[in-house]
Write a structure and sequence with these properties.
Number of helices of chain B: 6
Largest interface: A-B, 33 and 26 residues
Distance between the termini of chain B: 42 Å
Structural class of chain B: alpha/beta
Order of helices and strands of chain B: HEHEHEHEHEH
Radius of gyration of chain B: 21 Å
Radius of gyration of chain A: 17 Å
Oligomer: heterodimer
Shape of chain B: elongated
Largest sheet of chain B: 5 strands, parallel
Distance between the termini of chain A: 26 Å
Strand content of chain A: under 5%
C-alpha cells in the first residue's frame, strides 16, 4: 500500500467513524429528548443520582448528545465535541461498571428506556464507541495534534505536536 | 488541553443549556408533571424505584403470572386468595417499610383492592398502589 492510498484510507476511515459516531449520539439523544420520563427511569436505575439531579440529567444529557454529535461536523467545535464524547463514554463506562459491581439490572437507557441488558454487552458497545471516537476526524481544521482528554490519549491523523 | 480547547468545550455546554431550556419548556416539564399526577395512595414506577430494595413488593396478579415473572422478590397476594397469601406476606413484612402492590395494568383493580385490605384489615398505613401496574413497570 503506497503512502497516498494509505492516507486516503486513513481519511476515509476518519470520515466514516465521524459519521457513525455522530449518528449513534444523535439517535440516542433524539430518542431520549422525545421521552424524557422514560430516560429518567433509566437514570434512576443506575442509582447514582436521584430527585432533581436525575430530572436535570434526563433533560440535559440527551440534548448534550445531540449537540456534540452536530459539533463533530463544525470545524470550530469538532475537536471539543470529540473530547466531550470521549469524556461521556468514559463516564458511561464507569456508571455501567459500578452498576455491574452492585448487581443492578440495567435497562441501559442508552437509546431511551427498555429491557434490561447484559452489562458486558454495554461495556463492549461503549468500548467500540471509544474506538470510533479515537478514529473520528474530518479533513481540514487543526489535524495532526496529539490530544490528551479525560486521561485518554487520542492520536489524530498522523504527525506530532 | 489548551485554553482555546476548554473554551470550545464550554461553548458546547452553553449551547446545551440553552437548548435544554427550550426542551424543558417545550414538552419535558409537562411530561414530568404528568408523571407526578397520581391518585391518593398511588405511586409511579419512578417513584417506587427511588425506594429501591427497601420496599416490599406485592404481586396481586394471578399466581401463574407471579410464578412466571415478578418485580424483584415480590410476594404473591391475590385478592381471591388473600388468606392463602397473607401468611407469606406477614413473614416478609417489616413495620415502616413501604409496601407497593401491583396488578397487570392501569385498568385492573386487584392491586387497589389488596392495598385497601392491607390498610383496613391489618392496619398497615404505608401501602401504595403502583400506577400502571406491571405494564408500566415493563415499559
Amino acid at each position: 500500500m503506497d503512502a497516498v492510498t494509505g492516507r486516503g484510507l486513513w481519511i476515509g476511515g476518519g470520515w466514516l467513524a465521524t459519521v457513525l459516531l455522530a449518528a449513534v449520539f444523535a439517535y440516542a439523544g433524539v430518542v431520549k429528548v422525545i421521552d424524557p420520563v422514560g430516560f429518567y427511569g433509566s437514570v434512576l436505575d443506575y442509582r447514582l443520582v436521584g430527585g432533581g439531579l436525575a430530572v436535570a440529567a434526563s433533560v440535559l444529557l440527551p440534548v448534550f448528545e445531540i449537540v456534540v454529535a452536530a459539533g463533530l461536523f463544525v470545524p470550530r467545535w469538532a475537536r471539543a465535541a470529540r473530547a466531550w464524547i470521549v469524556c461521556l463514554l468514559l463516564i458511561f463506562l464507569v456508571a455501567i461498571l459500578q452498576a455491574w459491581w452492585r448487581g443492578i439490572d440495567l435497562s441501559c437507557g442508552c437509546f431511551g428506556s427498555g429491557e434490561p441488558v447484559a452489562p458486558w454487552s454495554l461495556i463492549l458497545r461503549d468500548l467500540a464507541l471509544l474506538g470510533l471516537a479515537a478514529m473520528a476526524r474530518l479533513p481540514g481544521g487543526r489535524e495532526g495534534k496529539t490530544m490528551i482528554q479525560c486521561g485518554m490519549k487520542t492520536q489524530v491523523d498522523g504527525g506530532t505536536e | 488541553m489548551n485554553r482555546t480547547m476548554v473554551g470550545r468545550m464550554l461553548e458546547l455546554v452553553g449551547i446545551t443549556v440553552v437548548l435544554s431550556g427550550i426542551v424543558w419548556w417545550g414538552h419535558a416539564r409537562e411530561a414530568f408533571a404528568a408523571m407526578d399526577a397520581v391518585a391518593p395512595g398511588e405511586v409511579t414506577v419512578n417513584g417506587a424505584r427511588t425506594w429501591g430494595e427497601t420496599a416490599l413488593w406485592v404481586d396481586a396478579r394471578g399466581r401463574e403470572a407471579w410464578e412466571a415473572s415478578r418485580i424483584g422478590d415480590a410476594v404473591w397476594l391475590n385478592e381471591g386468595a388473600f388468606d392463602e397469601g397473607i401468611e407469606d406476606f406477614l413473614l416478609r413484612w417489616t413495620p415502616g417499610v413501604p409496601v407497593v402492590v401491583y396488578c397487570d395494568s392501569e385498568a385492573c383493580d386487584a392491586s387497589a383492592a389488596v392495598a385497601e385490605r392491607l390498610r383496613s384489615e391489618l392496619g398497615i398505613e404505608n401501602v401504595w398502589v403502583l400506577k400502571g401496574g406491571w405494564d408500566a413497570w415493563m415499559q
